[in-house]
Amino acid sequence: MSTFVLVHGAWHGAWCWERLTPELERRGHRVVAVDLPSDDPAATFDDYAEAVVAAMGAATDPIVVGHSLSGNVLPLVARRAPVRHAVYLCAMIPDPGRSQSDQERAGGMTDPAYLKGLRRTDGCTVWADADLARELLYQDCAADVAAAAVARLRPQAYGPPTEVWPSGPLPAVPATAIVCAEDRILHPDWSRRVAPERLTAAVLELPGGHSPFLSRPAELAEALHGLG
């Protein structure tokens, strides 16, 4: 049995793992789903990492899974607590000396189409275009699953993506990048290239879009089970 610590990405919450959690539990694993303070404009990636470590509690050698934006959080967690394995699920990967925003502006990492669906309010971005959210985040989910997910999207502070990652190597933790071949947010080709370069990570590939925890939870659970 392994403990999987599941860390959601931008605009989501611990709720997004509700279809994956029972699949992992059926395979004999313990699951901790974390709620990040991502709607707090004052919170930083360091604060996100502290929230993950607090939620982990006394978990021994957990496997920490970070989705999307939370790829920036995984190395910070590994600096604070023992982590057996870090899983970058359709996730951004930090580049020392640059911010996520710097990487996005350079091109090749994300599809800027998602920016058209957002508006800014109170230090955060929110999804203002529900149809575009469904198209980009949940295109391969059942209609009812996608609708429920869109209804629960929350604000995401836009400060953390502008934080410049400190210079120096990322923590030397065993890592795997799970890439979804039809991801419409994070370019799969970018992940395939960058994960081995920056993390010396193995790359596993699944079909489908950016949210496999909702669209194909059993398949994702089986991939994670193989790491446990």
UniProtKB/TrEMBL annotation:
Q: Does the keyword tRNA-binding apply?
A: no
The UniProt keyword set, sorted, is:
Hydrolase
All residue ranges annotated as the AB hydrolase-1 domain in the record: 4-223
- Where do the coiled-coil regions begin and end? none
What InterPro entries does the record tag this protein with?
AB_hydrolase_1 (IPR000073), AB_hydrolase_fold (IPR029058), Sec-Metab_Biosynth_Hydrolase (IPR052897)
| GO MF assignments | hydrolase activity
Q: Can you tell which superkingdom this protein's organism belongs to?
A: Bacteria
- Short name of one Pfam family: Abhydrolase_6
Q: Which SUPFAM superfamilies does the UniProt entry name for this protein?
A: alpha/beta-Hydrolases
Q: What is this protein called?
A: Alpha/beta hydrolase
Give the source species. [Mycobacterium] wendilense
